[in-house]
Amino acid sequence: MALLVKLLSSTASEQGEVQPNGVVNNRMATVERVYRVISTTATLTELEARDAEGSNGTDVPAVGDVHPDDGTLYVVSKRARQQESEEYKNWLVTVNYQTIRFEDPTDDDPVVEFLSNQYTKVLDKAWSSGGGDTPAVDVLNSAGDPFDPPIETEDGRIVVRITMNMRNFSPAWKYQYEGSTNLNAMDIVGLTVAEWCARLLLIDIKVMYDNNGDRYWWVQYTIEINPNSYVRKILDAGYYYLNEDGDRTQCTVSGVVVSTPQLLDGEGALLVDGEDPVYLEFYAYDSEDWAVLQIPGELFKITERPA
Q1: Contact 42, 49 (CB under 8 A)
Q2: CA atoms of 111 and 113, how far apart (whole Å)
């Protein structure tokens, strides 16, 4: 099919926000170019006219093509109108160009949300009626024994959700870091967090592409903060102890086998009366250095949750 394509006209315009001082911000230029497409051998469909490649060396630009004289203008739309008297052999194609500014999505500030998780815990310490800095009253019955079953209460922890765009990210980090605690003390969006006091609950990721077609990552971190740390501290007590020879020996009182766990000293021996109980520490979760994750230390935009 032999086609002739000819540029008939080109009209430019510009829009923007005129400030009181006369400066125009957010300039947006548009150009409308009209082409005549003529078939010398057969009739054309609208699609064929819009995408015509002329045998005379002139083509109708494709959507996405850059303007020949302005590298900021790109084809955003086209439309074709048939000249009825020419039996679908003669078309006018209008090509619309528009300014497309490249915006790097990784320049956007992270979006931060503060949420909470609710838990139930054993109430072993209570606040005094006069207040205080920490709960200091042992929760015991009038005989000085713990309640059985133990008293439970609600407890809440801060959850921080951070959404950000990143140019450099590895999907393998989800496997490596998700579920871990922070190995080092750090600032998380304005909160100072000691080591092992934050846990990365979720890493959600999406593969995205910017206006230039370059890949970036949409990343969302969900982090729970536990000021008491994720190191489990368990009272050292049991029904057996290690004697002077290091042998495992059953605990007895006046020759009678005990029915409640006895306090130990952290070395396997029975705790001397009057000494403070010993708590053994266990790391329930893997700890990692989170530096590579680029978690912001400062506070950026805040998204309030609806009531």
Answers
A1: no
A2: 7
* pLDDT score of 88: 65
For residue 163, what are its two tokens?
Answer: 């959404």
Backbone angles phi, psi at 293, to 5 degrees: -75, -10
Distance from C-alpha of 265 to C-alpha of 240, rounded to nearest angstrom: 12
CA distances from 142 to 138, 266, 273, 276, 277 (A): 11, 29, 21, 21, 21
For the stretch 39-50, pLDDT in tens is 877 788 888 889
Q: Is the per-residue pLDDT at 60 higher than 80?
A: yes
Residues 6+ away with beta carbon under 8 Å from 46: 80, 82, 91
Q: Around Cβ 229, how many Cβ atoms within 10 Å?
A: 17
Q: Beta-carbon neighbour count of residue 122 at 10 Å? A: 14
Pairwise CA distance, residues 73 & 30, whole Å: 8
Neighbouring C-alpha atoms within 13 Å toward the C-beta of 123: 14
pTM of the shown model:
0.60
Provide φ and ψ at 306, rounded to 5°. -65, 150
Quick one: what percent of the chain has pLDDT higher than 90? 50
How far is the CA of 28 from the CAs of 67, 74, 78, in angstroms? Answer: 14, 12, 19
Q: Find all residues with CB under 8 Å of 214, minimum gap 6, and list them.
A: none
Instruction: Round to whole Å and give the CA distance between 38 and 60.
Output: 12
